[in-house]
Target: Alpha/beta fold hydrolase
Amino acid sequence: MDTFISGQVAIAYDDHNPEGTGPPLVLVHGHPFDRSMWAPQVEHVGGEGRRVIVPDLRGYGRSTVVPGKTPLQTFAQDIAGLLDHLDVAEIVLGGLSMGGQIVMEFHRLFPDRLCGLVLADTAAQAETEEGRRVRNAMADRLLREGLGGYAEEVLDRMLAPAGIRRFPAVAEHVIGMMRRTPPEGAAAALRGRAERPDYMASLSRVRVPTLIVVGGDDEFTPIGDARLMHEVIPGSALVVIEDTAHMPNLERPAEFNMALSRFLDSIPRKP
Model:
């Protein structure tokens, strides 16, 4: 693990195969997880000789916990700062759930730094009034109670129930990440996402190859959300991984990795 200092915040990250041929793949975790959620992809893509960079977002994992409210813009700027620190100009940027929304925000702010996008189990629409209420109420609850109860409640929506039974080690990994997440960091991110803008207009201006992946049984961001992005992003590819919920990269890593490799192979590698 390495650390990048941005102001008063330390961002933890792993930089795999820094000498790999480009463009580097940067993967952004979702809420309430950490960079370890990408372990199967790091192993697979890194094994193909590519550079893979995986940060812990501020407030999560080994990065500095910042209470209050963390907008998506702040997360995107942290990633841009990390790229500057690593002297990386262009990347393929991927994210799942909240991570996917950070990818959309990064595209809005820094489109010239992108040569590909991966949007997994995420949604582009603006937050609704009801959604804002729910996210702020959940932030209050996590500060009061911690993430233990929440983790138990949502595990069978993060992973398909059948997957929990078949892959207990995966379930333990997912619930462990949730339980370890600092409540202050998770609450700050929830408050920031409660103000999420609509990304549909900016996605219509995407001019780089884009892969959209969704679990067939995802309740948080259903197939309809993925299809909406697929319709608006020119030339995008849509892959539905059946019998998975919100985290197909962990439930069906072989299928997810196959789609990811096929997509990355379509983007020219620069020396």
Q: What stands out?
A: The mean pLDDT is 96.
